[in-house]
Write a structure and sequence with these properties.
about 150 residues, mainly alpha, about 75% helix, rod-shaped
């Protein structure tokens, strides 16, 4: 963008009135370039330094990201271990209750089996007598007579 003084310089007289003087018109762009080139050349070093600072910052940021990723992995591993322990701790009462219930069920089954054995042992002589009686009776009388439907004598 042109500066205001450059705009005004266009209306400034180029020389004194009178006979024409031979000369070369002023080249403002060349003058500006001659003024700014040394300054811009000095900035090249600053730009290189800034690029080096940016590169160093990028390396540092990458290191920070890497350390953060390692730390995050450690935190996740610790959380998984803690979660596993918490699940085991929370499941322990349920396991104990299930074991106690299983023990009760087994004990109840053992008692039921013992009761069934006792009943079978008590009925076996009676049923054996019935089978023997049926074996020696007339075929039309089998299953009738002195025996009740539950297998005991009337």
């Amino acid at each position: 963008m042109l500066r205001f003084w450059y705009f005004l310089s266009r209306f400034r007289p180029r020389g004194t009135p009178g006979p024409a003087v031979t000369g070369v018109p002023a080249d403002r762009e060349a003058e500006l370039a001659a003024e700014l080139d040394p300054l811009l050349a000095g900035l090249a070093g600053v730009q290189a330094e800034a690029a080096e600072i940016r590169a160093e910052a990028a390396r540092e940021a990458e290191g920070i990201r890497h350390r953060a990723a390692v730390r995050a992995a450690e935190i996740v591993a610790a959380a998984e271990t803690g979660a596993r322990q918490a699940r085991e701790l929370a499941a322990a009462p349920a396991r104990r209750a299930a074991r106690a219930e299983a023990t009760q069920i087994v004990a109840s089954g053992v008692r039921a089996a013992a009761a069934l054995r006792r009943r079978a042992d008590a009925r076996l002589p009676v049923l054996a007598d019935r089978v023997v009686d049926d074996a020696f009776s007339e075929p039309s009388d089998v299953g009738r007579g002195r025996w009740a439907p539950g297998g005991s004598r009337e």
